[in-house]
Fold these 2 entries.
Entry 1:
Amino acid sequence: MKILHIISGLNIGGAELMLKRLLVASQADDNYQHSVISLTGVGVVGLQLRTRGIHVTAMNMSSFLDAPRIFFQLMQRIKTINPDIVQTWMYHADLIGGVAARTAGYKNIIWGIRTTDVQAGGTRTTTMVRKLCAYVSHRVPDTIVCAAEASRKAHCLVGYDPSRMVVISNGFDLKRLVASGADRDALRASCGFTSAMKIIGTLGRFNPAKDHENFVRAAGLIANKYIDVQFLMVGRGLDANNNQLLKWIEKTGHPTSFVLLGERSDVPACLAAMDIFCLSSRTEGFPNVVGEAMAMGLPCVATDVGDAAMLVADTGIIVPKENADAFAHALETLLNMNRNAFQQLAEKAKKRIYTEFTIDRARVRFEEIYQRLFQKGND
């Protein structure tokens, strides 16, 4: 069965990494042949997929003004590949890729929705594309896969066809989410952390939707009370060149309590160096990074966005978004736990991911859709 994936881009991001995990997990099954088209560039994830033997091409779209040209080129590529199923990821790919496939005569189309808050975190162009997607959702895709129940509900409210929507939560590659005690010690030492320090961390690119100002404000409140707590920030743009971030940190009065590592390739080691993980976002779909932190045995404090509450359940603390006081109070609750209770919470978080959110479980759900569409196309 030939499955063509069309995605907006292939740089590091939640949808891109989920696609990678899905394709790598599927390589053990000879029944499926996957290929990928990126509307923009090959990106980091595209190069990684190529090293795994997966065919990746890039359309090099630089702006939405290129959409008409890309649309017709994409139609020709789809006809050349002649896939059994076309699976698109994210709004722009859903619209351009989905309509191109439908116009080319293909009906086995799966859309992918990753976001939850349709009012925040998007550009004017993205808002327009989402509205167009809602309008054609009743005709173009056979199935619309949402990464979160919150995503499904939010998109139904803005006009998406609810009869075509299903939820498949992200799955995690647990073999990758491993770090040794030596990895933890080495990274902590490189940051100047002592063994007695408690490290509160966050991981994710600098973006208004991630609301790093909220994290910094909450961290400042904690730093006022706890001298043995340090704050580790990892992700693209979380570095000393970010003047806006530095201003927020300076305002806390505790600039030496923050370590900024920027984008890193050793995510498991970075998570292992932390004691508590934080998600401070004002909007999310299914927060991959929270699941990764839980898989590494970290209790989490997360804002009540997307499916964060469903994912964390009773293994951490959920707080209102954009409320630094509530965030700091939750962190203080975890910091004041006795060692045994804290360790039990950490183990509970890890067990939840290992039991409920593996990539193999997600792969089976996707393959059930592939089989249904393939059978329907051959009836």
Note: Residues 2-171+358-374 form a domain with the Rossmann fold fold (CATH 3.40.50.2000).
Entry 2:
Amino acid sequence: MSKLQKATSKAKNIFSHALVPLSLSFRPDIELKPEDVKDAREYIAKYWSKVERFHPKDDESLLGLPKPYLVPSYRLKTGFDYNELYYWDSYFMVQGMLDMDHKELVSGILENLLSLYNRFGIIPNASRTYLTGRSQPPLLTTFIFDVYQSFGKDDAWLKSVIKIAEQEYATVWMGIKKPNERQVYRGLSRYYDINYLHDLAEAESGWDMTTRFDRRALNYLPVDLNALLYKYETDFARAARIFGNKKEAAKWDDVAKVRKENMDKLMWDRIKGLYFDYNFVKQKRGVTSSLAAFYPMWAGMVDDKQAAALTKSLRRFEHKGGLATTDALPLGQFVLGSVPTQWAYPNGWAPLHFMVVKALERYGYHKDARRIAMKWLKTNLQWFNNDQVFLEKYNVVAPEKPPVKGLYPSQTGFGWTNAVFERLCRDYVDRPE
């Protein structure tokens, strides 16, 4: 057997067995120490060169970009290789490298996203010609402020890039007709695809596939999307204050206030202490409890009472290995021939853990944030210690078992998992309680 065949066989076997547990303890009173994560962090540092790409010119379906960028994963000869930049993956991948050593790469990835908007009038799902009909969860203003703060960019730079973000907000996310028919009900927006297909709109959510939308994504106002747009609005207000434009800042404050009022009215369930996606066609809330409910908390949109209720509701999702994406699978999930929903119980995902941890920290729930971060790090580390890889997603209910598969092959690598692992190590392992 050749080295390539052995490597491919090993990669396949990663997902076909249960782990043999090592000495790693999941007890909440035992925290990870720097020496526990040393090898994993060294692997991550070396891995970035494998997923860095530079394609300055269009090449068949692959779009040219002015700067080097990161792709989600790299595996030899799998038939599922990545060579394109992804919108929201890029945001989470840079979270592990907001330092001066990576200034050029991180700033260049943001420049690539801006260049895609300038060329296509949308930041596509990914830098492929066939993926320009939809976008991904909008994190542009947050990315901009991360770069502005981490690398000391000046106000002239901020003004130029915020202007592009305002255009993206207005044309893509607040559009009312094709090719961007997203704002559909009470000033709130939905995920969309130019082909007007529910499953492709669900792909724009990044949660492909999930139990949240009942295979009718075009009918839903998603909690996470509208919280992200609230964050845009408050970021525009923040930028206006930096520029000394109080009138402009007040305008954006008012816009954000109206969005919050409408979201609270339609999506907030006081009894359950959670936000739910809203089906505007049926004019009722969805029934799936999901971690999307914590995006408003991450965005700073909730009051203290709502924050307390959300934190209490963590128990719906929290398991031995971290947070499940939803609270449970409906019975229909197990019907033969149903679409696999990898963005659901029992799987957990790095970007959602990052968002929830940041949400908890924002409202002062530091112990809860630390507990969740440690659970997630241990789940990641257990797999790394056994197989020397990070996974795209994990089974947080039974961390020793493989994750539930989705529509495409389970991936190893893995960009945003690596980055969030490194970021949480910096925030919690390097800084003992």
Note: DSSP finds 14 helices and 13 strands in the chain.
